[in-house]
Specification:
With about 325 residues, the chain is an all-beta fold. The chain has one domain (about 15-310). The chain is built from no helices and 22 strands. Strands 1, 2, 3, 4, 5, 6, 7, 8, 9, 10, 11 and 12 form a 12-stranded antiparallel beta sheet that branches. The termini are far apart.
């Protein structure tokens, strides 16, 4: 049985990145963690001569509820790396103390005098492919409404629990990174009923076109939207608001607000090794999704810090002004 985590890359590929990542907001409300397991340019051993261009990398970023994010990255040589064969299951990525499989992962980093370790399991009810362009690249979410259990430690601070946090586990791959993208995911607790999630992705395509897709998982139903009309996109203030229309009677109003001290700006190495580019990420963002359906009253899904917003670049001539009311949508 194929899974959305299944390896695409071969170690003979000269120019390629493939990444498996997790984002979880801790259940105690203290913050969020972001973990990345990255393979880049395996045949050419990453970007030789660039300290940030190791072919295998593991990243851990801590987003405290009160304070600035802390990021830790460690590179590894291919000689220490083990990866499941393309197209075969079970999937696994392993290097040093770091490992990720279909529904569990662990890690151990020693960076800048800090020790970070994690041992996690996760399960979910929904998975989705946002974008699938074959050799060019894809964006998949094998676990969209993930519930995490286990333990995470940063130096002498340890958190553990049978319900440790909530979020997603994703899997992306491509020949190169896009020059422009905006991506968001939100996890909505709903009391004693199953959680809902929302995910949206926009990126540039050739000939001035752009890819746009959003998916809402709600009450056991997946709603897909291709018609995204932006009201506001502000990469500097980390705000994104837009409408999603599936029909004249079924649509969403969405606002994702990533302002504040949790904005994290970091450099990604280009797969052609010609420098870096900036990625802005806030894994403690606020999100509001208003769902309108025929025969139902409007329904608001709200999370104060259960969303992640990520932005890269600007479209040519893109305005950074808003046409929305100051108090929209809630």
């Amino acid at each position: 049985m194929k899974t959305l985590n299944e390896t695409y890359s071969r170690l003979s590929m000269r120019r390629r990145y493939e990444v498996w990542f997790l984002r979880l907001a801790l259940a105690d409300g203290s913050g969020a963690w972001w973990f990345r397991y990255l393979l880049m340019n395996p045949r050419r051993a990453g970007c030789v001569g660039n300290p940030a261009g190791a072919p295998v990398q593991v990243w851990a970023t801590w987003f405290p509820r009160a304070g600035k994010p802390e990021s830790f990255t460690q590179g590894f040589p291919l000689a220490e790396f083990r990866l499941s064969v393309r197209g075969r299951n079970p999937f696994h990525f392993e290097v040093g103390q770091n490992w990720i499989g279909e529904s569990a992962c662990r890690g151990g980093l020693n960076v800048g005098g800090h020790q970070i370790a994690w041992d996690l399991e996760y399960h979910s009810n929904f998975q989705v492919t946002l974008s699938g362009k074959g050799w060019i690249g894809f964006s998949r979410t094998p676990h969209s409404d993930a519930v995490f259990s286990g333990e995470i430690s940063l130096d002498d601070r340890v958190v553990r629990g049978d319900v440790l946090g909530y979020g997603l586990q994703g899997h992306n791959c491509g020949y190169r990174h896009r020059h422009f993208w905006t991506w968001a995911h939100a996890y909505f607790h709903r009391g004693f009923v199953p959680a809902s999630t929302f995910e949206a992705l926009v990126y540039e395509m050739p000939l001035g076109l752009s890819f746009r897709k959003a998916v809402l998982w709600h009450e056991g139903v997946a709603y897909e939207f291709r018609d995204l009309g932006e009201r506001r996109r502000d990469r500097h203030k980390m705000r994104w608001s837009f409408d999603c229309c599936a029909s004249a009677e079924r649509y969403l109003e969405v606002e994702v607000d990533g302002q504040g001290p949790s904005i994290h700006r970091l450099s990604y190495v280009k797969t052609n090794c010609a420098g870096t580019f900036e990625v802005a990420n806030n894994s403690l963002a606020r999100a509001v999704v208003r769902l309108r359906r025929p025969g139902h009253p409007a329904q608001d899904l709200v999370t104060e810090c259960g969303a992640v917003l990520e932005m890269v670049g600007d479209l040519p001539g893109e305005p950074e002004t808003s046409t929305e009311p100051a108090d929209w949508p809630g």
